Design the sequence.
């Protein structure tokens, strides 16, 4: 048997290289083989720090009998959901027809044409509490494929058609008004767990995009801050290394799932920074933000400058695999132990979230070290995650680049981060690159999707007719749609180019009322919609060249949508490059001046 995963880019795939299962990587050749052999396709989707993925690998994928069954009767594909998010999204949508308990590992049984005819998540090695064993599932799947093939094919085709039809459905909705935004806040407030904080019951997630949305609204800010304060004292925080675990399995946040994800920590850093900006007496916000930043820069930031995707929940202690055992010890107890492994996969979009969060925190807390970490990561991505044709690279590990297509989230999250970095440093090149990235998504847009993926989406999904076009769904982090719309909206606020505002509005309008009705699923979209519902505020501070004095708290803690401090030379460079916000913003009588603007109409400058 050829070991096809031994040289895979993904650490998750390489972790399965010694399985007796004859795994293939995601690609058309696997489906072609299934068609030639007239067998179904088994698609197993997970990620490197997924606890139950580890469990199923040990229990089932290492079992020679199960491996023989799979190798004889199916073509098996192993997918890293973080490397191929479009594949994961398509099959999650299809799996919802079979189970409401969606998660990872995601187990898909598909036709050679790629459409699912059965799906589930983790299957145990033996029946448990009414749940069939994995072997029983395999027997049932083969029975359906052998004896009820027509029904299986028809079911798969119907599900695939339904999924893509929903994804491509264009609504005549409008962007929500300020009153409707307030209604979404009230809905979220009704979900609050008044005893333990957060929303809903177990398992309980931080849902960082929701907290950031709440903080940007007058009626929601107290709820957002209250939740963040509760989280800061919860078992989800690692008291030694800083940073948050992914979720609590209990309603009181206890018994965490101990993996620590880049996206969670980046978004929570931004939330705690904003909570402190709104009220600098919140010491809990400053301390928690510092812990998250320490985790990001001290643990997840790699020697190259890029950020690893996650840190595992499991480690080996005294020769035994332990879920969370490392984190249960204090600093002294951890000394001499090997920390849980990092998933060293550098994802462009998730790195964008970290760059933006560290940049924003650097301004609010006046931390030059945060800014340097953000700049280091950004420069690494710009050097190593851009192809010769200016398309982006989705993922890399060390010197190896993934062949997976970059997704809309990569373009939107990186563009937004680069714009934030440009405003913080005064360096025009970052803003110019951000504009190029957003322009590329507009050029790739279609009548059904304002923003498109430069270079096209996943070719296998597209060829099979099961790609989700312009998927607006959000989970623990922003969708590609909301991230790119956010970058476009902020570009409008610094360029004055209405086409960016119109693109953001057109992209989000179809989901406006859906987001208001289902706020837990659209936190980042609602945050942007709330910004759009009010006139954008801008604050530009321009200093004489060669003058470098501390920036006052009134600037660093400004509530404006865009805040930037530049030199006179930098202001002129931005103006010449088409960034209208900087036009005629100059020092006066050799003094640093602040220009407070609303929708590009500015008050008289004031010295700061």
Sequence:
């Amino acid at each position: 048997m050829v070991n096809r995963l031994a040289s895979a880019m993904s650490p998750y795939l390489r972790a399965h290289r010694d399985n007796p299962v004859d795994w293939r990587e995601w690609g058309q050749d696997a489906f072609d083989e299934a068609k030639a052999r007239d067998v179904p396709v088994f698609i197993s989707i997970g990620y490197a720090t997924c606890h139950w993925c580890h469990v199923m690998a040990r229990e089932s994928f290492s079992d020679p009998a199960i491996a023989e069954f799979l190798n004889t009767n199916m073509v098996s594909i192993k997918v890293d959901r973080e490397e191929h998010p479009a594949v994961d999204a398509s099959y999650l949508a299809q799996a919802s027809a079979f189970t409401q308990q969606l998660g990872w590992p995601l187990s898909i049984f598909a036709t050679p044409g790629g459409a699912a005819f059965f799906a589930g998540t983790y299957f145990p090695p033996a029946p448990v509490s009414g749940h069939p064993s994995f072997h029983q599932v395999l027997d049932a799947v083969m029975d359906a494929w052998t004896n009820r093939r027509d029904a299986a094919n028809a079911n798969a085709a119907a599900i695939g058609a339904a999924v893509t039809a929903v994804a491509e459905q264009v609504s005549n909705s409008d962007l929500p008004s300020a009153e409707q935004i307030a209604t979404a806040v009230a809905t979220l407030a009704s979900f609050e767990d008044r005893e333990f904080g957060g929303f809903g019951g177990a398992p309980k997630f931080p849902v960082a995009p929701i907290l950031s949305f709440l903080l940007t609204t007058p009626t929601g800010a107290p709820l957002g801050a209250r939740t963040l304060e509760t989280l800061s004292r919860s078992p989800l925080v690692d008291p030694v290394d800083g940073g948050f675990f992914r979720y609590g399995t209990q309603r009181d946040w206890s018994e965490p799932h101990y993996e620590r994800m880049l996206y969670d920590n980046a978004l929570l850093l931004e939330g705690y920074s904003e909570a402190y900006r709104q009220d600098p007496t919140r010491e809990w916000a400053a301390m928690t933000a510092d812990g998250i930043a320490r985790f990001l820069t001290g643990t997840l930031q790699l020697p190259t400058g890029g950020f690893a995707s996650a840190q595992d929940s499991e480690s080996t202690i005294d020769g035994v695999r332990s879920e969370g055992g490392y984190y249960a010890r204090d600093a002294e107890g951890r000394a001499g132990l090997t920390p849980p492994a990092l998933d060293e996969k550098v994802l462009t979009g998730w790195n964008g979230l970290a760059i933006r969060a560290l940049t924003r925190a650097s301004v609010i807390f006046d931390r030059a070290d945060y800014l340097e970490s953000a700049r280091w990561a950004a420069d690494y991505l710009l050097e190593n995650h851009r192809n010769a044709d200016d398309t982006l690279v989705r993922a890399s590990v060390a010197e190896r680049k993934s062949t997976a297509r970059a997704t809309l989230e990569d373009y939107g999250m990186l563009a937004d981060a680069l714009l934030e970095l440009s405003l913080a440093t005064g360096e025009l090149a970052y803003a110019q690159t951000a504009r190029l990235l957003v322009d590329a998504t507009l050029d790739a847009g279609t009548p059904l999707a304002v923003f498109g993926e430069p270079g096209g989406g996943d070719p296998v999904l597209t060829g099979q007719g099961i790609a989700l076009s312009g998927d607006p769904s959000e989970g623990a982090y922003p969708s590609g749609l909301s991230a790119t719309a956010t970058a476009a909206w902020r570009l409008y606020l610094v360029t004055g180019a209405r086409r960016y505002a119109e693109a953001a509005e057109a992209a989000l309008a179809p989901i406006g009322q859906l987001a208001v009705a289902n706020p837990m699923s659209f936190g980042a979209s609602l945050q942007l919609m709330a910004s759009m519902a009010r006139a954008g505020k801008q604050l530009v501070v321009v200093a004489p060249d060669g003058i470098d004095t501390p920036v006052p708290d009134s600037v660093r803690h400004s509530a404006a949508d865009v805040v930037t401090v530049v030199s006179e030379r930098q202001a002129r460079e931005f103006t010449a490059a088409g960034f209208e916000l900087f036009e005629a913003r100059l020092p006066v009588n050799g003094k640093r001046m602040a220009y407070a603007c609303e929708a590009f109409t500015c008050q008289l400058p004031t010295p700061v």
In short: The CA atoms of residues 394 and 406 lie 4 Å apart. The first strand starts at residue 23 and ends at 24. The mean pLDDT is 94.
